[in-house]
Structures are given as C-alpha cells and as structure tokens.
Amino acid sequence: MKTETIKIYKFEELSKDAKETAIENERNDEFYLSYDWFDGLHEEFKEELNTIGVDCEGFFWDIYRKEFTADKIVVGDYQK
Predict the structure, then answer these.
(1) Which terminal residue of the chain has fewer beta carbons within 10 Å of its beta carbon, N or C?
(2) Total domains, the chain
(3) Does the residue 45 lie in any domain?
(4) Side-chain half-sphere exposure of 30, counting CA atoms within 13 A
C-alpha cells in the first residue's frame, strides 16, 4: 500500500499569490455556485408538505443557516 503525506494550509497562511490561485481554482470549478442539486429537493419537499396538508407560499430553505421560512403557512383551518 502506498501512503502519501501532504501539507494542508489554512487560507490565512497562504501567500498573496497562493490565495489568488486558490480563489481562481475555485471559481473555475464546474460546481461553483451551482444550486441545480437544490432545486429538485426544494420541489420534492414542497410536494411532501402538500401531501400532509401544509400549503406554503414563498417557501424558502436557507442552506447556509439551515432555516426554513415561508411567507404564509396554511395547515387545515390554521393560518400563520
């Protein structure tokens, strides 16, 4: 079995040129700022909510803060 050891640096420890290279490499990544994976999950979740009788208008899930918000939630006769 082959073992390879690499040194990992924090972003703050990099030189200015290395920071610019790291940022540019991230920008050139094919998945940079790609939220295509999220759209399907968003729609599936809304369908699941409708299945159990929850109607959400303006539904939003903040993937960074992990917060669920909706402009209006209607469950049966209850409305918030």
Answers:
(1) N
(2) 1
(3) yes
(4) 0
Q: What is the pLDDT of residues 43-71, one digit of tens each?
A: 787 788 778 877 766 666 666 666 666 66
> Does residue 34 lie within any of the structural domains?
yes
Per-residue CA distances from 69 to 5, 37, 42, 49, 52 (Å): 44, 20, 12, 13, 18
What value does the mean pLDDT of the chain take? 77
Task: Determine the structural domain holding residue 68 and report its residue range.
Answer: 11-79
Judge if pTM exceeds 0.85: no
- Taking the C-alpha atoms of residue 33 and residue 51, their distance in angstroms, rounded to an integer, is 31
